[in-house]
Design brief:
Layout (H helix, E strand, L loop, with lengths): L14 H17 L1 H4 L23 H13 L4 E5 H7 L4 H5 L5 E4 L3 E4 L7 E5 L2 E2 L20 E7 L13 E7 L7 E11 L6 E3 L18 H10 L4 H8 L2 H13 L8 E3 L4 E13 L4 E25 L6 E26 L3 E24 L7 E26 L5 E28 L5 E6 L6 E25 L2 E26 L5 H4 L3 H4 L2 H5 L6 E4 L6 E19 L3 E19 L18 E16 L4 E12 L3 H4 L3 E3 L6 E3 L7 E13 L5 E12 L2 E7 L4 E7 L2 E14 L8 H4 L1 E15 L12 E2 L7 E10 L5 E10 L2 E4 L8 E3 L4 E11 L2 E8 L5 E6 L2 E7 L3 E9 L1
Parallel strand pairs: 4-7, 26-30
Antiparallel strand pairs: 1-6, 2-3, 4-5, 6-7, 8-11, 8-42, 9-10, 11-12, 12-13, 12-41, 13-14, 14-15, 15-16, 16-17, 16-18, 18-19, 19-20, 19-21, 21-22, 22-23, 23-24, 24-27, 25-26, 27-28, 28-31, 29-30, 31-32, 32-33, 32-34, 34-35, 35-38, 36-37, 37-40, 38-39, 39-42, 40-41
Length: about 900
């Protein structure tokens, strides 16, 4: 079969036209910002403390080292090292971060900080902003970062002048492995089994991809792209208009369908256990007395199938009447692999240059079959059986270089700089949906089955999204001594630029002329070569792409900052400063010809452009009461801007709810005032306790809301009038050796945990066709309480280590209801994980992990009725690792 590469997905406009559209849009921003958006001169305050969950490593002394680091930091952040991640057995950054105080996990990928959704968080890689390969989110999907390449995770909960101003809950920095002091080799191999593997997996011909990369079987055929170029379209009408021969037009149209992958009959196969492995190597060399060079390189691979069952319900009214109901059986075949190559060069102790190269690849082949019923068929014996095949590849490539320099001859000035070039891509070369009409007996067994004979009986979608970003910056620091005070003054500059190109093609098989005998077959049989070419069947290939399926987007952020860090007699430390950001954004929907769409005259180009700037000051203070206790206070102002997809008038599917979503070009940025106070107690025994209070005042927070139309139900986004969030959080680490100081076993036992109690409130008004049911309510995604508990044990002989970890969050609004329907609440999820490690030799380890030990299910409720349910299953992992 003749196929095209992903890069030639739909070349219906030239790269010159694309570049011209972006250039014109951004030129308009630069020339007329006042006419496009209201400029803001915002002052921002910074909460500068750091909170660290750190029960790490085989030995408790490692935990004490991390806690001491937290104590010395001038700002508020949570730190989690590789040892802690290894102890809990978490396989990726997302799973590890839910152990941090006030953090919860959504969809296994995205973190909520202090009850604020993922749009209120930001993510960086080794301190640099990089693009997200997930088009439905603005932040990186953290499940893409395997624990094998992570050195540490930092969650900064308050702003600082040197950090980006665009976050409200927290900023996550993922730090990959750094240059070692000596030679090492680490390797691991493991197997995974799920309780859901008792069932077969759903799959289709050609779906087994070891590397998670499509070989061209799924890709849009090259002849379809050529047909757009030659005929201006692929429909029979388009082709006839171009060549003037209807018979030839029909033949060409059918030949295009013949080139498409139609061997897509869903079938059952055995689900094999998953497997994974990793390896990393590093070393450092002394080139001479002054020069040192080091490197670390590694790779990670995972291949597994996650079977699941779920139910989705849409309510017709607040009385609980069901509009539609779907029972879904599915299999998600996941392949993840990553490569890392980092190098460093040091000259004496004054100069260091490091490079970081990271490649992440994550593919998902999700195949599902659902039985769909409507309000008219729930009590009948008829229903719809829908097949969905969603294959996507997500990749991220990041190249970074940074330098640190100390100039003793120039008043001890320190200079730091960095440059990052990153590219993210989401390639979905084959998303297919088709449905059968079925009849069932009283036991639910299917008695008859036929594909729906209609113009869109099978819909193919080919889509490609590319993000290219450039991020660089520098800062200078000058230390000064004024009597008993030591002060460091800093200043710097940051620049970020992003370009996005999103393309999508929707093609449909028209089988409305097929007779009932043909439609009773399987998919590959119905759309065989003979049936497509048989003139009596009247087959047509249709283009159902909407005008705004394609769009271009660009972002630019210019930022400068000044900052100071004052230490007075080792008793009072004050840090603060101000950051200025100039932000410009363009999101341009495109027609099939590559022109900027005005959506039928509804919008002008200025409606797609945003320009704003602001000042963001921050200050934090730490008072050391005595050798064990200290107090912190921090103030800051930050901003949360709408994501590109949230303002693009493009329809896409939300992966959590399954609802279609569409952007709102009228969204505005949200300014946030943050206040943090914290008390910390570090005991001589190594135990610690901290209690913090926080308050956030949000102007025009962005909320996801449900919109019920005559055709279907959508989710969109809306600015609320105002919002606030406040609460307290406490974190502790208690060694249990005090119970019996003579017991070596109790000395190796420790208990750690954290608890966050908070509340939020927003006020929201109706706008256009959006009519929220509850005009005053909690914020979307906010849980009133979040708890983490960890019980860990290290044996006296250092041969055994075990950890039991529990995580739970209170119910939270998944999305807001409208038109009289109540809000949809995600229910608490009791997560209990257990890990055990055996170390027969210093360099060998055998680790066993059970995830979701209680076999909890994900559940959403609306009007007291379950509207979403997913059985996740329990996961068992056995890993053998070698460390030399």
């Amino acid at each position: 079969m003749n196929t095209s590469s992903p890069t030639s997905l739909k070349p219906r406009f030239s790269s010159n036209k694309v570049g011209l559209a972006i250039a014109n849009a951004l030129s308009l921003l630069a020339l007329t910002p006042a006419a496009i958006a209201e400029e803001t001169n915002d002052t921002q305050v910074d909460s500068h403390n750091v909170e660290v969950i750190s029960v790490v490593g085989r030995l408790q002394r490692v935990a004490s080292e991390v806690i001491e680091e937290r104590r010395e930091l001038p700002y508020v952040a949570d730190l989690m090292g590789a040892e802690q991640i290894g102890r809990t057995g978490d396989s990726d950054a997302a799973a590890a971060l839910r152990r941090v105080t006030g953090l919860t996990l959504r969809d296994g990928k995205f973190i909520y900080v202090r009850g604020l959704g993922e749009r209120y968080s930001s993510t960086s890689l080794n301190g640099a902003m990089v693009p997200s390969p997930d088009p439905t989110r603005s932040v990186l999907p953290l499940d893409m970062f395997p624990a094998a390449i992570i050195e540490s995770l930092s969650v900064q909960k308050g702003a600082s002048p040197s950090a980006p101003a665009a976050f409200g809950g927290g900023h996550v920095d993922i730090r990959t492995k750094s240059i070692p002091d000596e030679f090492f080799i680490k390797a691991s191999i493991g197997a995974q089994y799920s309780s859901n593997h008792s069932d077969d997996r759903l799959t289709y011909a050609g779906a087994d991809d070891f590397w998670g990369k499509d070989d061209g079987l799924r890709a849009e055929p090259a002849v379809i792209s050529q047909a757009y170029d030659s005929y201006g379209g692929i429909s029979q009408t388009d082709i006839f208009r171009a060549i003037g021969d209807i018979d030839q037009a029909i033949a060409i149209n059918q030949s295009l369908a013949l080139a498409m992958n139609r061997n897509m009959t869903v079938e059952h196969k055995d689900a094999d256990p998953g497997y994974r492995g990793s390896i990393s190597i590093g070393n450092q060399f002394d080139l001479n007395d002054d020069w040192r060079w080091g490197f670390v390189t590694g790779g990670y691979y995972k291949n597994q199938v996650d079977n699941y069952q779920k139910q989705e319900v849409e309510l017709a009214s607040s009385d609980g009447d069901i509009a539609t109901s779907s029972v879904v059986e599915g299999s998600d075949s996941i392949v993840q692999w990553s490569l890392m190559a980092n190098m460093g060069l040091e000259f004496t102790d004054d100069h260091k240059i490091e490079t970081f190269t990271t490649y992440l690849h994550d593919s998902s082949d999700d195949v599902s079959v659902s039985i769909n019923e409507t309000i008219d068929t729930i009590d009948e014996d008829s229903a719809l059986q829908q097949y969905d095949i969603d294959y996507e590849e997500r990749t991220l490539v990041s190249n970074q270089i940074r330098g640190e320099h100390f100039f003793a001859a120039l008043w001890d000035i320190q200079a730091n700089w960095f440059y990052t070039d990153a590219r993210a891509e989401r390639d979905a070369p084959n998303e297919l949906a088709y449905r059968y009409s079925i009849a069932q007996d009283s036991n639910g067994q299917i008695t008859s089955r036929a594909l729906q004979g209609r113009a869109d009986s099978a819909v193919y979608r080919y889509s490609l999204l590319k993000d290219d970003t450039e991020n660089y910056g520098y800062q200078l620091a000058l230390p000064l001594t004024l009597g008993d005070a030591e002060i460091t003054v800093k200043g710097g500059y940051n620049y970020f630029e992003r370009h996005r190109d999103a393309q999508s093609t929707r093609l449909a098989f028209d089988s409305s002329g097929f007779n009932s005998d043909i439609l009773q077959g399987e998919f590959a049989e119905i759309f065989s070569d003979a049936n497509i070419q048989n003139s009596t069947n009247g087959f047509k290939l249709l283009d159902t792409t909407s005008e705004t399926d394609d769009y271009l987007a660009a972002q630019m952020i210019d930022a400068g900052f000044v900052e100071f860090d004052l230490n007075w007699a080792d008793n009072l430390r004050v840090s603060g400063g101000v950051r200025y950001e100039d932000f410009k954004q363009a999101v341009l929907p495109l027609t099939a010809d590559g022109d900027i769409s005005d959506e039928g005259g509804l919008n002008q180009i200025s409606d797609y452009l945003t320009a704003e700037d602001g000042w963001f000051p921050s200050i934090s203070a730490t008072w050391v009461q005595n050798d064990e206790m200290q107090w912190r206070l921090a103030l800051s102002k930050t901003v949360v801007r709408p994501d590109l997809r949230e303002v693009a008038p493009v329809r896409f599917q939300d992966p959590d709810s399954g609802f279609d979503m569409i952007g709102n070009a009228a969204l505005e940025s949200s300014d946030i005032i943050n206040v943090d106070a914290r008390w910390e107690w570090y005991m001589e025994s190594g135990s610690n306790l901290s209690v913090a209070a926080f308050y956030k005042d949000l102007e025009a927070p962005i909320e996801s809301v449900q919109v019920v139309t005559e055709q279907d139900t959508l989710l969109t986004f809306q600015n609320a009038d105002s919002g606030k969030l406040y609460g307290i959080e406490t974190e502790f680490h208690q060694e249990l050796g005090f119970i019996d100081p003579q017991s070596d076993w109790l000395d190796g036992l420790f208990f750690a945990g954290n608890l966050t109690l908070s509340d939020s409130e927003i006020e929201i008004s109706p706008a256009g066709n959006i009519n929220p049911t509850n005009l005053k309510r909690r914020m979307t995604g906010h849980s009133e309480w979040v708890a983490n508990m960890q019980l860990s044990f290290d044996s006296p002989d250092q041969l055994h280590s075990a950890t039991l970890v529990y995580n739970i969050f209170g119910d939270r609004i998944a999305y807001a209801g409208t038109a009289g329907l109540d809000d949809v609440y995600e229910q608490p999820f009791n997560s209990l994980d257990f890990s055990y490690a055996y170390y027969p030799l210093e360099s060998l380890a055998l680790k066993f992990k059970v995830k979701n030990l209680l076999d909890e299910k994900s559940e959403y409720q609306q009007e007291g009725q379950r509207v979403f349910y997913k059985q996740n299953g329990s996961e068992y992992t056995l890993t053998f690792s070698f460390n030399f």
